[in-house]
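Input:
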Amino acid sequence: MQEASGAGAYWARRLLGSPDISAPVAEPSGLGTRERAARLLADLQQQHAGRSLEDVYPLTVVDTSEGPVSRIVTVRDIPPPATNPAWAADKLQAGLELVFGIGPVYAERFRQEGVGRLDQLSSHPVYGARAQAVLDAIAHDPAQASSLIRDRLSPSDPLLWATTALYPPSALLFVDIETLGFFGVAVVLIGVAEWVGQALWVTQYVARSVLEEPQILAALFAHMAGKPALVSYNGRSFDWPTLQARAAYYGIPLDHPGWPHYDLLHFARRLWRERLPDFHATTIEREILGVIRPDDLPGSFVPAFYEQYSQDNNVGPLCYVIDHNRQDMEGMARIFARLSEEWMPGVP
Amino acid sequence: MSLDGLYRALREEAPFADFVTHVEDVPARAAVAGSLQVPLPPAFAAFLDRHGLTLRRHQALSIEHLRAGDHILIATPTASGKTLGFNLPVLERLASDPDATALYIYPTKALAQDQFAHLTALAAEVGVTARAAVYDGDTPSGRRPGIRETSRLILTNFYMLHQTLPWAHQWERFFRHLAFVVIDEAHTYRGVFGSNVALLIRRLRRLLALYGADPRFVLASATIANPEEFFQRLTGLTPVIVDQDGSARGRKRYVFYNPEALGPNMASPHQETARILARAVSEDVQTLCFAVSRQLAELVARWARESLPPALAARVSPYRAGYLPRERRELEAGLRQGEIRGMVSTNALEVGIDIGSLDAVLMSGFPGTMISARQQAGRAGRGEDESLVVWVPFADQLDQYLARHPETFFGRPHEHAIVDLANPYILAGHLLCAAAERPLSVDEAVRFFGPPAAAHLQSLEHQGLIRLTSRGYVYQSHPAASQVVSLDATGLQPTVKVMTEDETLLETMDWKKALEEAHPGAVLLHRADTYVVSSLDLDHYVATARKQAVDYWTDPVKLVDIHILDERRARDGNGVRLAFGEIEVTEQITGYKTRVFDQMVALNALNLPSVTYRTMGMWFTLPEAFVRELRLRHRNVPGGLHGSEHAMIGLMPLTVLCDRWDLGGLSVPLHPDTGAATVFVHEGVEGGIGLTEKGFELAAEIVRATYDLVRTCPCDVGCPSCVYSPKCSNDNLPMDKAVAIEVLGRFMDVPPAP
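Output:
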C-alpha cells in the first residue's frame, strides 16, 4: 500500500507539470497573458469570496435521465436574421450539381442549353428522377438536402448556407462546450442558445464537479431532441466529436448523428479569407462585428480556472468560465446573423 | 569464391590459427513438409502453387492452431517463412467471414510499410477484399475515418494504439469484429517499453471485451528461453508454442576467433576483425561484418581497405544508420548485386532491410543478446548454400564466457525475456489511461491488470485523479492521460534538456542520467562530435554544452547507498542468503575524473544534489564465520565482494535479457540493514522492470556461470573479462580476483529456486 500511494503521488506530480500540449494556443506570443490570467483570477476570487453560484446567477435545477443538473438561462436582445425562404428556394433550384451524375461540366452545358433549374430537369429521361429526389429533399427534408450539399459540394458552400433558411430561426440550436482540455478529458459546461421570437435565449448546463458530466450531457441531448439543426463554431472538428466521445465514455446513447450541423468556421473562412488574420471567433467579433470583450482570456485557460474552482470551492473562476461561454454563444448568434445578411440579399 | 579457402586459412595459417578456439559444423537439413486436416481454399492453394511453395511443418501447425482457436507464439528462425504461417489463416478467416477484421502491430513504421505491401499483394492473389491500410502517425488525418470505417486489416504500432484507444468508439466496427491481433518481432517488447506494451495490451483487451470481441493473439518472436511465460506476461493469455522449424537449411560452419586466446591484451579484436575481413574479400567470399558501434564500423572498414589492393579495397564499405537514405539504398543495392564484397555495418542491417544473403558473416564482439547474434548469423547463407560465420569476442565477461562455453552459444535458448507488470509507476499510469478510456470498475481492473490494481486505484483516487462513480472509476484530471503516460518513460522525472550555446537541443535525458553525464565539465559525445558541458541549471532542468574538440573524456565519481525497504522473497543454504525486494537507492555524484586514454589526469569535485529512488534489487549475504576466516587469512574481503559483484552483473544478460548498464551494484563488508557482508545487484529504473526478480529465480544458473568464468579466466589478478567493470567509478578498487572466486563459490550454496 505504501508503494501504491507512491505511484499515485508520482502521477499527480506528472499531471500537474504537464501542459496540455495539444490545446490550441489562442495568442501567438502569449506575452502577458499568463500574468493577466493570474491577476484576473485573484480579482475573481476576491469578488466572489463567500458567494455561491446561486447568489450570482438565476439558477434552476432540472432533472435528466442521469440525475439533477444546474441550469442558467439568460435572455439577450440579439434578434435573428430576417430570412428569405423564397430567395433560398430559388438559389437551391439552381443547384444542378446536386444531382448525382451531374458535375460542373454537365451543369454548365445544361445552363447553356437554357436548363438552369432543377424543376426544368425533373422530366429529363436520365436525370429526371434524381432531380425530383433533390427537389423533394429541398421541399420536405432539409436535413437530407444539407447533407447532400455537404457531400457533393463543400461544407462552406453558399448553397449549404441557403438551407439554413429552410428552417425557422427557432429551429436552430447553437452549441458550445467548455472542457478540461483537447481530448480524453471531461466536459464541464455546455451552452446552448436558441431564438425565441426576437430574443436569444442562452441556456447553460453547469457541471458543479467533474462527476456531473453525465448529467450535463444528458441535459444537452434532451434539449437537442426538440431541435432539428445544430450550429457551432468549429464544432464539427471539436465540440461534436468530443460530445460523441464523452457519450460513448459513459455509455449514454446518442443515436442521431444525422442532424444537420452548420459549422460557422467554414463559412466565415470562405467569406472573410482576405480580411482577417485568423479565424478565432473573437477576431470576427472584433474586426467584423465591432464587439470587444473586456477581460477576455483564450479558452485554453478554462481547465486551470475550473481546477482552481474545484480545489477551493470559490466560484469566481467558474463564473468567469460561465460568462466566457455565454459570450461565445452570443458571438456565435451574431456571426450567424451577419453571415445571413452577407449571403441572403434582398431581404424585404 | 572460396569459402573453404577462407575456412582453411583461419584453421591452419599462422597467425590466424592460434586464435581459433572453437569450430562448429551445423550440417544441412532438408525441409520438413506439413499437412493440413482440411486443405486451404482453392485460391490459397493456387497461390502456393504459382509461387512454387509448399507448406512446411511449422506453417501447417500455425494454420491448424489458429483454425482451432488457439493463441500462438511462433518462434522459428529468420527466413523460415513464419509470416506466411499466420498470414494464410488470417486471410482464410477474412475470406470466410466477411465482417472479420485483423490488427497487425509492428515495432517500426518501416516494417509496417514493408508488410503492408506484402499483405496487399497476398490478399489480392487469394481474392480477399481486406482493404488493408497502414494507420500510424504518418497517415493523413483525411484518410483516417475511411480506414476506420472500411478497412479489415490495419497495420500499426503500439505508440499509435496508445493514442487511439481514447477514441475507441470511432473504431467500434473494427473492434467489434476483431478476429486476430498479430504482434510481429514480439521479443522487442521487453524492459520498460515491454512493461508499457503489456499494460497497453490489457487496455486494448478490456475495451474489446466491452465490444464483445475476443480475438486470437498471434506473436512472432525470436527464440527465447521462456516463450510461454513471455506470452502470458505480454498479453495475459496462454499460447500454444510453434517452434518446430520445418524449413530447409544449408550447411553452416562457425569459427570462434578469440583474441584473448593467448592471454589478456595480446591482440586487438578490432584489428583482427579487419584482418579477417580483408582475407575474406581476397578469397572472394562476400562478407557482412557487424561492428558494435558506428565508429568501429568506420574503423574496421578503413583498416581492411588499407591492407587490400586498390581494386578490392574499393569494394569494401562501411554502412550505418547515420548515412543519407540515398547513400544507404545505393550501398544496399551494391551488396545485393554483389558489387560490394565486404561491408561493415552496425546492427542497422541485422533485420528488416533487404540485402539478400551473403557467403559469410563476421561478428565483431557479441551483439549483446543471442537473439541478435542469431539474427546476424542468419544473414549468411543463400537459400540452401553453404555459409560461414566467424565470431571475434571482446574482452568482457559476456563475450569471454560464451567463447569458452560454445555449448551455451549453440545449445537451447537461455535468455529470458522479461515483461514486468509490477512496476507501480507504470501500472498506475496505465490504470489512469484505462479509466480515461471507459469508467473502470475495481473488478475489471483486477481481472485485466492483476490484484495490485485495486490498491493503485485507491491511491490515484486519493490524489484526486480519478473518482469512484456508479459506473466505476472516472478520470477527472487533465490533460488527457494518454498524453502524459509515455510508453518509454524511464521514471525519474524531470527530463533534462541538453542545449548547445546557440539553443539547439542536443538530447534529453532523465534527471539521474543528467547528474551523471551532463554535470558541469562533463564531455558528451554526440554524433562523433565532443561537447563540454558548461552549466547544469538545476532549477530549470537545462544543461548547456559547448562544441569543443577535446582529447579527453570524463567519468563521474559516484557514491551509492542502499536502504532495504521490503524484503519480498529469500532463500538460503549453508549460511549464505539470497534475498529479493524493494530497496531505496541514493546516488550522489561527488566529482568526476578526467581521463586521457586510460590515464586519469585530474580529479574534480562537484557539488550536486543526490538522487533517491525506489527500485527492486537482489542481494547476497555471507555468514560471519566465512568473512572472519578470510580476515584471519589477511585476505582482501572488500576486493572479493567487489569482484563478484562486477562479474555477476557482467554475466546477468546471459540469462536475463537486458543490458548490463540497466543494472547497478554495491558491495559492502558490513551493511547496516543486513548486519553482514552484502553484495547488491539492483535495477536502474525507478520501480524496477522485473530484471532482479528473474535474477533471483535464476541465481543458481547466474552464479555458476560467473564462478566458471572467473575461475577459468587466464589472467592473474583480474581483467575486464572477469572481475573488472569498465564503468566502475572506483577504478575497480579494491579488487581481489582470488577472493572473488571464494565468494562466488560460497554464493553457490544458495539452492536453485524450487
